[in-house]
Amino acid sequence: MPEIITSDRVPARGVARPTRALPALARAIVLPIVAVLVLAGLLIGPGTPTARADGTAADFTVTANLGLDGTLTVRQDITFSTVPAEAQQTFETQQDVLGDRRYTYDVSGFQATAGRQPVEPTVKVSGGRLTTVSFPTNGSKQVSLEYTVVGAVIATPEGTALAWPLLQGFDSTVSEFSATVAIPVPFSFVECNAGSPSSEVPCTFAAAGTEDARQPTFRDGPRGPGEFVQVRIGFPAGALESNQQLEDVWTLARAFSAKPLPLALALGLLVLGAAALFALHRRAGVDAGAGTEVSKAAEFVPVGPGQTEFRVLGNVRPGHVGTVADERVDPIDVTATLIDLAVHGHLLITELPRANEFAPTDWTLTRTDSDVSNLHPFELALLAGVTGPLDGAGSGGAGGAAAGVAGVKVSELPSRVYESVNAVQDSLYDEVVAYGWFERRPDATRNRWTQLAIGGLVGSVVITALLAAFTTFGLIGLALIVLALGLMFVAQEMPARTKSGAALLAGLGVLRSDLMSHPTNQLPPGRELSEISELLPYAVVLGGHQRWLDAIVASDEDEHEDRFDLGWYHGPEGWHLHHLPDSLKNFITTVSGELFAR
């Protein structure tokens, strides 16, 4: 090939560059060293060639025969001008194509000669992609290598084609290459490219069906070590059967293909699954008879002109209220129950003076000697857990007086209520079922559906892995995972109230509205503190407690300290009722955290 000279290799002429003179001592040292190196280079000559290019093939002639079954037999006759100790050639047995697919070829039946004498070739397969054949030359200039290829006839839109590099992976320079392919049927075209595997540079000569080349004939050269001469001979449809071996290659993009079919199936599955989840929730997770009846838990009852009092209807406690409202026993439900126990005289909450202005606030919870026979099991469990077992009744007894530790600090609650909080929650869940507000325990319902969702999620992950590994429908698996996660979300909303539970929920909505909007100045004069104390636990759960605390502050008309004005909450020295909003807010936050800091 003609030498290509680029502009940066053209020597510049007539241009003198200024140079800095070397000191005399530097010249005396450097110049002799440079001279020695130049002389050594001249004596040694060009750099030592690499081991794979220590020979030169003056002629590389290929004679190939294509059978009707697509099997290609190849004979390579090689004439060396510079004989290497060993000839080596590497064949690519896999070729990647577009669409995450690849052709595979079976190259076998290797036979080699050196000086017309058979020699034993060594065949090494590397990773299933490369097959390397090497054999000794025994000093002979004439060597040959024969082999058979299956899979070289591929299907094309026009018919079939033989596509195979008749020169590839040879470890020596080839001065001249020529090849002739005997074909059993008429051809439609011939092509030949040379250079790298992806080269589109045409060979020096490629012809067929002419006076000089009746069979497909190809010539090229020179070619460097490892370069290719790729030939392609086309055949009309039906003339020669394809024996291609085309297999799919796993890639992430192929496994989760967004082609129309898998994408449409995945989207359809998502739509149907979402509709199924909605229908499931409507069938199993919606309250029975919701919105048809209202059952009030408490209300403001007129007792005189412009006066009302707060009155609890039935036996609905603050702990019940929160559990029915959001189907969960939350920290605020337990804290409101604790305040309700204090309001009804079973506990005394005493705010302790701070050790210093930066120290956290602490309180003591002291059990009184009031009768506990009218308390619910969850209230008994909480009272016993906070202040110790009840006389003669244990944690669930009734009618006992204080026998536990008096003056338990709020900061000590975590170590005391580790097990009792679970008992309180269990009792509350059992009671809302016993009162007919739920058919099943809300926590059990959530757990059952959550376990089903987790099982579905695990199954979806397994299905996704299998689909991604063996098909192109991985998106369907992702859709299943999304639906399993959706079921996990729906599971939290599956507890359904009965008709009476739905009626109570509607009544709680009315009560919340009253607590948020009822005038705070219509309570009977002189009974403001007791009335507000009565409703306060309900307001803590449902909302609006801040405005009622402000009403307590407004009722304080003197400048004297009020540390003992509330029968259920005592403050430290110098404490006034206007401190109650901040004190109670701090108490609620602290107790909610301490009770569940386990």
Give a brief description.
With 598 residues, the protein is α+β, with helices and mostly antiparallel strands. It contains 14 helices and 25 strands. This is DUF2207 domain-containing protein.
Task: Give a structural overview.
Residues 59-235 form the DUF2207 domain. This is DUF2207 domain-containing protein. Residues 315-551 form the Predicted membrane protein YciQ-like C-terminal domain. Keywords: Membrane, Transmembrane, Transmembrane helix. The chain crosses the membrane at residues 21-44, 261-280, 449-467, 473-491. The two termini are 84 Å apart. The protein has 598 residues and is α+β, with helices and mostly antiparallel strands. The strands form six sheets. Strands 1, 2, 6, 7, 10, 13, 14, 16 and 17 form a nine-stranded mixed sheet that branches. The protein is rod-shaped and about 125 Å long. It has two domains: 53-248, Immunoglobulin-like, CATH 2.60.40; 298-439 and 496-595, no CATH class. β11 and β12 (159-167) form a beta hairpin. The longest helix is centred in the C-terminal third of the chain and has 29 residues, at 442-470. It contains 14 helices and 25 strands. Mean pLDDT is 87; it is low at 1-53 and 392-404. α4 (318-326) packs parallel to α12, α5 (331-343) runs antiparallel to α12 and α12 packs antiparallel against α13.
Rounded to an integer in angstroms, the radius of gyration calculated over CA atoms is 47 Å
User: How many domain regions?
Assistant: 2
Number of E-state strands: 25
Residue stretches low in confidence (pLDDT < 50, at least 5 long) are 1-53, 392-404
- Helix share of residues? 25-40%
What class would the helix/strand composition place it in?
A: alpha+beta
The CA-CA distance between the termini, in Å, is 84 Å
Mean pLDDT: 87
Q: How would you characterize the largest beta sheet? A: 9 strands, mixed
Give the overall silhouette. Answer: rod-shaped
Tally of separate helices: 14
- In what range is the share of β-strand residues? 15-25%
